[in-house]
Design a protein that fits this description.
The chain is mainly alpha-helical. 84% of the residues lie in helices and 0% in strands. The protein has a single domain, classed as MetI-like (MetI-like fold), CATH 1.10.3720. The longest helix is centred in the first third of the chain and has 35 residues. The two termini are 33 Å apart.
Length: 188
């Protein structure tokens, strides 16, 4: 049992890490675009808000005809789930940069790139990372649904525990998922 749990925990973590990596690579530029271009803000944040309303299991079901079963639909669905908090928080983080800090940077003769790298990014970072942490918690919890498309992970153990009435397996697998999600949210 422990070897299977270890392998499923590793697979669960890899699914979540893959989805989070893609979500950060996609979501941060869209959040930056939303913050820097007024014409883009409404459609991008609207799409992010819509993404928050879609049930993960429904997204998985819609992706199976397009991508088949296994890891691809799971990664795509988890990435889509992670995008909204990342996009929204990056937009908020950039727009929350104090005007006074930007005025001081301009007064010091900093170029737009220097202001972005030296003022905006450091001040925006904590808010943006909060979005990444929120997305991480959601992805780790929802990755259990990957079992329904054959992607494995701890969802396999949870479903097996439910089907066989094995409360111990169900409790251990659920506790591992909860611990992983809590570890993602811990502020260092």
């Amino acid at each position: 049992m422990w070897a299977v749990l270890f392998a499923d925990t590793l697979r669960h973590a890899l699914l979540a890490a893959g989805a989070m990596t893609l979500a950060c690579l996609i979501g941060a530029p869209f959040g930056l675009l939303a913050a820097s271009r007024d014409w883009a803000r409404s459609p991008i944040l609207g799409a992010a808000a819509l993404g928050r309303t879609l049930p993960s299991i429904a997204v998985l079901a819609l992706l199976v005809p397009l991508l088949g079963v296994g890891v691809p639909p799971a990664i795509v669905a988890l990435t889509l789930l992670a995008l909204p908090p990342i996009v929204i928080n990056v937009d908020l983080a950039i727009r929350s940069t104090p005007a006074a800090a930007l005025d001081v940077a301009r007064g010091l003769g900093m170029s737009a790139r220097q202001r972005f790298a030296g003022v905006i990014v450091p001040l925006a970072f904590p808010i943006a990372i909060a979005g990444v942490r929120t997305a991480g918690v959601e992805v780790i919890g929802s990755a259990t649904l990957a079992t329904f498309v054959g992607a494995g992970g701890l969802g396999d153990d949870i479903v097996r525990g439910l089907q066989t009435g094995d409360g111990t397996l169900l409790a251990i697998a659920s506790a591992i998922v909860a611990a992983m999600a809590l570890a993602t949210e811990i502020r260092r």
